[in-house]
Design a protein that fits this description.
Blueprint: H1 3-13, H2 20-27, H3 34-49, E1 52-62, H4 91-104, E2 108-113, H5 120-136, E3 141-145, H6 153-159, E4 164-166, H7 173-179, H8 185-197, E5 201-203, E6 206-208, H9 214-227, E7 231-236, H10 253-266, E8 271-274, H11 278-282, H12 286-290, E9 295-297, H13 309-318, E10 322-323
Parallel strand pairs: 1-2, 1-9, 1-10, 2-3, 3-4, 4-5, 6-7, 7-8, 8-9
Helix pairs in contact: 1-3, 2-9, 2-10, 3-10, 4-5, 5-6, 9-10
Bound molecules: iron/sulfur cluster (SF4).
Iron/sulfur cluster (SF4) binds at residues 66, 68, 70, 73, 75-76, 114, 116, 147.
C-alpha cells in the first residue's frame, strides 16, 4: 500500500484531521495509485460504518417552476430542460411515493420541493405528511429539503417528526457567485445552521463538476466539515440541456472516485452519500465507490431517472455490503445471484444472418 495514504489514514483514525493539503493530494492521486487510495479510504469507511449502506429515497413533492437561478439546476427560473413540472403533490400521492421507496428497500425518505424556501403553509403540509408516514412506518427516517428556512420553520419540522434537513452548500464560497446569483452562500450556511440549532440532523453536500478548481473542491469539503454536516451528499453535475451548464462535462469516473475518497478522508465518520450523477459519471466504478462511500439514493432522482432500484440493491450485495436496517444475510458478497432465468442464447453474429453486437 502506498505509505502516504496509509499513514494519512492511520493519523485520521488516531484523531488528527486531514488538512487541506492532504485533501488536495488525494484529489490529485495518479492513476497507478488510485486503488491504493481506495483501499486506504475503505479502512475509514469500514471503521465507522462496517459493511452497511444507507439507502435513501427521493420524493419530489413539487417539481420545477422555481424562481431561483441556480445554473446547474433543471428546475431553475427559465430552464428549458425537458423535465416534469408540477406543483405540490396531494398527500395521497406523496405517501404512495414514499411507501414505494420503503417497499423498494429504502430506510430514509427525502421529501423535497423546488423553490427558494417554504411558506409556513408549506411547512404545515410537510409536517402533516411526515406525521402520517411515521404513523404507518415508525422506523422510517425522514429528511426534508424545502429550500431556505425562515425563523421557526426548522423547529416546526422537528416537532412534526422530521429527522434531518438537507440544504447543500453545493460549492466553495469562492465559487458560489459563479453558479447562482439569486441567493448567497451565507444564505445557505444560515439555513444549515438553523436546522442544526433546531435539533435536525444537518445534511449538506456539494456538486462536483461546476467548473470549480481542485482547491475549491477542497474548500467546499472543509467548509462542510466545519459546518458539522452529518451527511454529505456528493452530487456529480448532470448537465441538462436547457440550463446554463448544458454541455459541461468536466468529470471522469476516476475523478469522481477521488472526490469521494477525499470526502471520506476529510470527514471520516460522516455519511458520505453518492448522490445525483452516480450512474452517469462513476459508470463501471460504482462498486469501487461503495467501498469509500456508505450511502446512496435508490432508483430515480428529482428530475432524472436513475438505474432500476433492483440494480442498486444488487450493486450493494455484489460488493459485499448490506442495506442498513435490513435483515442480514450471512455474507452478502457471496450470495448467489437472485436473478431468475437462463443465460440468453446467442442468436446473432457468427453462424447467423443477424449483425453481431460488436
Ligand atoms: S437548486 Fe433549488 S433553489 Fe436552486 S433553482 Fe433548483 S430548485 Fe430552485
Amino acid at each position: 500500500m502506498t505509505p502516504r495514504f496509509d499513514d494519512l489514514v492511520d493519523a485520521v483514525l488516531a484523531g488528527t484531521p486531514a488538512t487541506a493539503a492532504d485533501a488536495l493530494d488525494v484529489l490529485r492521486t495518479p492513476d497507478d495509485e488510485l486503488l491504493t487510495l481506495v483501499a486506504a479510504a475503505a479502512r475509514l469507511r469500514r471503521n465507522h460504518f462496517g459493511d452497511t449502506v444507507k439507502v435513501n429515497y427521493l420524493v419530489n413533492l413539487k417539481s420545477g417552476l422555481c424562481p431561483e437561478d441556480c445554473h446547474y439546476c433543471s428546475q431553475r427560473l427559465g430552464s428549458k430542460a425537458d423535465i416534469l413540472r408540477y406543483t405540490w403533490l396531494g398527500p395521497t400521492e406523496a405517501l404512495e411515493q414514499a411507501t414505494a421507496g420503503l417497499r423498494g428497500g429504502a430506510t430514509r425518505i427525502c421529501m423535497v420541493s423546488s423553490g427558494r424556501g417554504p411558506t409556513d403553509r408549506d411547512v404545515e403540509r410537510v409536517a402533516g405528511l411526515v406525521g402520517t408516514l411515521k404513523g404507518e412506518h415508525p422506523d422510517v427516517e425522514v429528511c426534508a429539503c424545502l429550500g431556505l428556512l425562515k425563523d421557526g420553520q426548522a423547529e416546526r419540522l422537528r416537532e412534526a417528526g422530521v429527522d434531518a434537513y438537507n440544504h447543500n452548500l453545493n460549492t466553495a464560497e469562492s465559487h458560489h457567485h459563479s453558479i447562482v446569483t439569486s441567493h448567497t452562500y451565507a444564505d445557505r450556511v444560515d439555513t444549515v445552521t438553523k436546522a442544526k440549532d433546531a435539533g435536525l440532523s444537518p445534511c449538506s453536500g456539494l456538486i462536483a463538476g461546476l467548473g470549480e478548481s481542485d482547491e475549491q473542491l477542497v474548500e467546499a469539503l472543509v467548509a462542510l466539515r466545519d459546518l458539522g454536516s452529518d451527511s454529505i451528499p456528493v452530487n456529480f453535475l448532470m448537465p441538462f440541456d436547457g440550463t446554463p451548464l448544458e454541455g459541461t462535462w468536466d468529470l471522469t469516473p476516476g475523478r469522481c472516485l477521488r472526490i469521494l475518497a477525499m470526502a471520506r478522508i476529510v470527514c471520516p465518520d460522516k455519511e458520505i452519500r453518492i448522490a445525483g450523477g452516480r450512474e452517469m459519471h462513476l459508470r463501471s466504478l460504482q462498486g469501487l465507490a461503495l467501498h469509500v462511500a456508505n450511502s446512496i439514493f435508490l432508483g430515480d432522482y428529482l428530475t432524472s431517472e436513475g438505474q432500476a432500484a433492483e440494480a442498486d440493491l444488487e450493486l450493494i450485495r455484489d460488493n459485499g455490503f448490506v442495506v442498513l436496517g435490513a435483515d442480514r444475510p450471512d455474507s452478502p458478497g457471496t450470495q448467489p445471484s437472485t436473478r431468475a432465468g437462463s443465460p440468453a442464447t446467442r442468436r446473432r453474429g457468427a453462424g447467423t444472418d443477424v449483425p453481431a453486437n460488436a
